Amino acid sequence: MLTLICDPFDPSLEDKLAEFGEVTTDVARLPEADVVLVRSKTRCDREFIDKAPNLKMIIRGGVGTDNIDKVCCAEKGIAVHNTPKAPSIAVAELAFAMMLAVPNHIVKANESMRLGQWLKKELKRTELHGKTLGLVGIGHIAQAVAVRAKAFGMHVIAYDRYVESSRLAVLKNSLEEMVAEAD
After folding, report:
1. Which of 37, 84, 143, 160 is the most exposed place for a label (fewest CB within 10 A)?
2. Which of left, alpha, beta for 47 (phi over 0: left; psi -120 to 50: alpha)?
3. β-sheet bridge partners, residue 159
């Protein structure tokens, strides 16, 4: 069995997969591949899939599978999987970094300091503590964000038409209601 890793992953992945067969990052070997691992960069469209007659499975390292032609895969009997929980913490941390950076003008403060300016009074900051965070959906990533928000003393509300209850957020009846209450 040949596993082709098309996009950057943790360098240790090749060694971990080696017990299941040969592993390569040489995209020229696509026609031989039984399994293909991708992230966001590689587009597994019909043209890509047609070049891989031995392909049995495509695994997307991440949440979505929008870069994979699932119709073509179904026609050819190719299984499609993803790793929906894998990026949750990294994405939640990035979201929190933005929630801290934007209202506190971190980029502008850094740039002005490099120019020898002190804009302390001009750059009003905002605390997250006590604010209400509204989440559209309460999936894996939103749950990871909610945990962090609670640690900051935030109130967490969410709208998710597919979920009836959440231990991490107060669910609202509509997106409009959620947006109206969120800071």
Report:
1. 84
2. alpha
3. 136
